[in-house]
Hints:
Blueprint (H helix, E strand, L loop, with lengths): L1 H23 L20 E2 L1 H10 L4 E4 L10 E2 L6 H11 L7 E5 L11 H10 L4 E5 L5 H6 L9
Parallel strand pairs: 1-5, 2-3, 2-4, 4-5
Helix pairs in contact: 3-4
Amino acid sequence: MKKTFLMVCCCLAGLLFAIPNANAQTTPVSPAVPAVSDPWSVSELLDPAALAGQLKTGNGPVIFNIGAVEDIKTAKHVGPVNDAKNLAKFKGMIAALPKNTTVVIYCGCCALPKCPNVRPAYRELKAAGFTNIRILNLPVNLKTNWIAAGFPLADK
Length: 156
């Protein structure tokens, strides 16, 4: 009886040591929501201060507001391009531009990674053959990263 009891205890002890090690060797579970992959490169992001500096010289790029926020000085207002009507409007606005034009797009409704408008506009510019696309890097929103810094808005 003692022998059987000792054997059962040893087996249980072996299982206790084996189970944690088996779990430690498994592949971690993937997150429920995959990371969003941005279609642009980091070099296509434009710092707000850099754009503000270009606007001061009067040699700024063509700027499109593809969101529902205030217009930056010289920006052409499109409206949220996640709406098919506004995306069609945007396509019409860029159609006549030379493909090497430096085009800056911004939305500013929310943090850039969550923005529903920048990706459709960027993809449309790429599909149309534009080669100098810049995304205004607004990590928080337009109010925080542009207006609070005192950068120029369009005259009303």
